[in-house]
Amino acid sequence: MPEQLDDVWFTRDLPVLRAIARLVDGSEHGGNPYLGQVVPASGLPKPQVAAAARALVSAGYVEALTNYAGEIVRFTGISAEARRLAGLWPTPQGEWERLVEQLTARASNAPTDVERARWRALAEAATSLGPDDGALLMSALIGGYVPRAR
Predict the structure, then answer these.
(1) Other CB atoms within 10 Å distance of the CB of residue 141
(2) Which long-range contacts does 17-20 make (Cβ < 8 Å, 24+ apart)?
(3) What is the pTM of this model?
(4) How many Å apart are CA 41 and CA 37, to the nearest integer?
(5) For every residue of the chain, which 3-state class applies, written as one string?
(6) pLDDT at 14
(7) What would the pLDDT profile of 141-150 be if each residue is shown by its tens digit?
(8) What gap in Å lies between CA 75 and CA 42, rounded to an integer?
(9) Max CA-CA distance within the chain?
(10) Per-residue confidence at 35, pLDDT binned at 50, 70, 90?
């Protein structure tokens, strides 16, 4: 079996994607940052940022302008999936975790025993539902889908 290459998603591509997303989403650079602005924002050396940028463009996560030599010069946009991966938009899993955290906190901080018991029961029900079904529910809520009554 051929030797697999090292994973570069977490060490190179994701930090660059997050830097691009912050700069594209921000108004400081008109939403179209240059590669030279992404380098310090990512904390990585320019050759790694350039390699990550090429990978992100080929995967469809970011849109970029190139010069005549085909080198990436400026970023002009990011995809919806890139916004989710960078944390700009919610993910069903993340929103489910936030909901369970909020229910647990409310159960702990409720002013009366009756309210505490109600919040605790809801938190326990949500926890017992599990992260997979919880993420499906949050996916429907984030997407605006409300099931019909039968």
Answers:
(1) 15
(2) 17/52, 17/56, 17/61, 17/62, 17/78, 17/82, 17/85, 17/86, 18/42, 18/86, 18/87, 19/43, 20/53, 20/56, 20/62, 20/75, 20/78, 20/82, 20/86
(3) 0.74
(4) 7
(5) CCCCCCCCHHHHHHHHHHHHHHHHHCCCCCCCCEHHHHHHHHCCCHHHHHHHHHHHHHCCCEEEEECCCCCEEEEEEECHHHHHHHCCCCCHHHHHHHHHHHHHHHHHHCCCHHHHHHHHHHHHHHHHHCHHHHHHHHHHHHCCCCCCCC
(6) 96
(7) 887 776 666 6
(8) 14
(9) 70
(10) very high
Tokens of 142: 């984030």
State the amino acid at position 9 in one-letter form. Answer: W
Question: In which band, very low, low, confident or very high, does the pLDDT at 26 lie, cut at 50, 70 and 90?
Answer: confident
Say how far apart CA 30 and CA 68 lie, in whole Å.
23
pLDDT at 147: 64
Q: What is the mean pLDDT of the chain?
A: 91
Residue 13, amino acid: D
Mean pLDDT within 66-74: 95
